[in-house]
Write a structure and sequence with these properties.
The complex is a heterodimer of chains A (about 325) and B (about 500). Chain A has 13 helices and two strands; from the N terminus they run H-H-H-H-H-H-E-H-H-H-H-E-H-H-H. Helix content of chain A is about 75%, strand content about 0%. In chain B, the strands form five sheets. Chain B has a six-stranded mixed sheet with strand order 6-9-10-3-11-12, with helices on both faces. Chain B has a six-stranded mixed sheet with strand order 18-19-20-15-21-22, sandwiched between helices. In chain B, strands 2-1-4-5 form a four-stranded antiparallel sheet, covered by helices on one side. The two termini of chain B are about 40 Å apart. The chains are: A mainly alpha (about 325), B alpha/beta (about 500). At the A-B interface, helix 8 and helix 9 of A face helix 11 and helix 12 of B.
Amino acid sequence: MFSKAFFKKHVYDIAAYAGLAATFVLFLIFSRENLSYNVGTVLQAASAYAILSLGAVFVYSMGFMDVSIGQQIGVYSILMILISNRMGGTIAGVVLGFVVILAIALVCGAFNGAVAVWLKLPSIVTSLFLMFFFTGAQLLLMESTGNNTISIEASIKPSSRTAYNWIILAAIVVVALAVTFLFNYTKLGKYTRAIGANEVVAVQSGINTTRWKVIAYMTFGVCVAIASFIMLMRTGTAGKGTGGGYAMDVMICLILGGMPLSGGMVSKVRSALIGTFTYVLLTNDLTTMGVELNYINFVKAIIFIIIILITCRKNNGVLPR
Amino acid sequence: MEQELIIEVKNMTKNFGITKALKGVDVKFYRGQIRGLIGENGSGKSTITSILAGMQKATSGEAFYKGQPWDPDSMVEAQKAGISMVLQEANTIPNCTVAENIFAGRFDEFSRFGIVNMKKLNAAAQKMLDDFDIKHIKAADSINKYGFEDRKLIEIVRCVSKDTEVFVVDETTTALSHEGRKLIYDLIHKLKDNGKSVIFISHDMEEILEQCTDLTVLRDGEIIGHLNREEMDMPNAEQVIRYMMVGREIGDAYYREDYDTSHGDRVALELKNITLGDIKNFSLQVHEGEIIGFGGLSGCGMHEIGRLAFGLEKPETGEVLRNGKKIHSCNDAISAGIGYISKNRDTEALILEGSIQDNITLPSEKDLAKKVFIKPSSEKSLSDKEIESFRIKCNDGNQWVNTLSGGNKQKVSFAKWTAKGSDVIIMDCPTRGVDIGVKQFMYALIADMKKQGKAIILISEEMSELIGMADKIVVMKDFAISKEFTRSQDLSETDIIEYMI
């Protein structure tokens, strides 16, 4: 069973599971008496990444990526705060804020999918455009408030840490189930994988690729909106730097989880969850191991390149188009 | 006359995992010979030549070249020593010029102080092209300007030189039209006459019988037998060879046996006054239960007709009609019950890095979805049904398509449309690179489809296939119909070729 061919075929999975197992063992060792508290910390840190990575599975399985989500999250957080505060800090205001950012996220998704097709551009170009656009919007919005950070007046975070942990766990589970359903049991997932594997074949098999690219990006948009809300729930504040770096973090999570950047039939939902928890546990481990905060990124860089070297040694590579 | 031995292979084996591709093969190649190698897919013919040409290593056994032990580490080493090979697949470097391709890896000969003298390079490349009598290709042009066939010719120019002692042609001609084939035939005969040795691998029996001086038949990694020219000229040679290849009587039924050209009255697909590029005002009607064959040289426009009919190309004027409804895209075409088997199987018809099941069910997912939910068991049963009826050789539907042989891959690309239940099927070179057993299966399937009332457009570069299968043969030349033939016993290849050139 464990023949050479078996390892070759499952190299992504093996590397991904091994990474998760290693970080998890370290987590158990170094958490010691703080284990239960640490579990909550990891869950909180993982929540936004998990939801973003789950949504990103649709886009990455097509072999595409979206670098604008970090700045989108920044703008969405600020908008939600501004709208709900304007409505007097009521729950209705929060709901309205969420509806507004959900609508914007859907429009951005459609833009990413459709404009790339119409202009025959690689979709990373349209997402770069959105990234710059949202960077500008984020700065302007913050300038208009006259502050460096703004806080939400409505209380959206449960006062009990346990209750809060359960809520985010539930959110991750619900999104994971929804994404699993869409990805494995509906046309959406089957088509995005086919587009990633070979777009010409997808077209000649009757898939309206433009339409499904748009739907895939819009599904991702929904997850971006939810993740923005989850993040805001945790911090209650937003500023000029909110969301920075999230696009790359999501990419790292997916790669660590064994998602090939070229997408295709081998793409799996579990990559998102495995990768996210590997990534978050790794950060947590390094901190509890006493690695100085300033050096954590170097260690992460080394671990990242090692995993890439293991998984990229396949004929077709996993680099994005 | 005693022939001079050039290559001797002794007890060579090659294993790919548990698969034994070669089982202790002994074979000798002589100078002044065009040795055909024939056998079904997976019989080991390409394995022998690829080991000799340095592409891979044998698992055990030895080879001798000009009396010395021969074990090349790379194709470059083999080529320097005089063994050159051209393959079926495209092997040129895109985005470079023709000259750069021809001299790839040999720029040192044209450079001083690290700067390549492009003028000298182009001139040398042009001279090589001219020596091969390939006048229409210009050395300084980008290779992207040239189609598949011309690129093949460029590859030949690259690998055949005055130092070539052994020239291996590995199913290269399958993808070529008549001009390209003729060029290769002339070349190999010239090499033979100059005392070189040619190893010629092909699926095309007629080509082998016409061109080769000797023939070796392989089956399942073993040499079954050798035929000399006299034996190849025997009237029943074809049956004998087929029997040797398959190992059982495959029966006489190969092509359609009937000459019944009747078909339904209803028009299944109509192309109406279509103009696109060089195709002007093209019209065609295909009826239910009718097989229309398209023949011509590779640049005659017949492949474009197939793409147009499937909605892959948008006509400038005119329309494609299915049951009176206009087809705007291939999405429309598929919904209206049209299927298309691309001649570029591995790049356009199949997801190689995907399972057999994923490939078969892809066009049918729409039909399988209940509201939005697609039941995995319904996908599996649809795909298993096709795997069984096509007798696709595999462990199960989860096996990846890139692990299948050429014939089985082609069965998968047929199965996509039978699973979908398409009523009009456009086949572009459906038996390209497919062995006899599978071909026979495909022909029986196509004949059966006709009986079921399906309309078929069969675009083919093999005249015998058109004569054997089509109710009506449309011959194209320079993007227009030059002649139409009705199915008949008296029709010969020369009749058709006359209108192609």
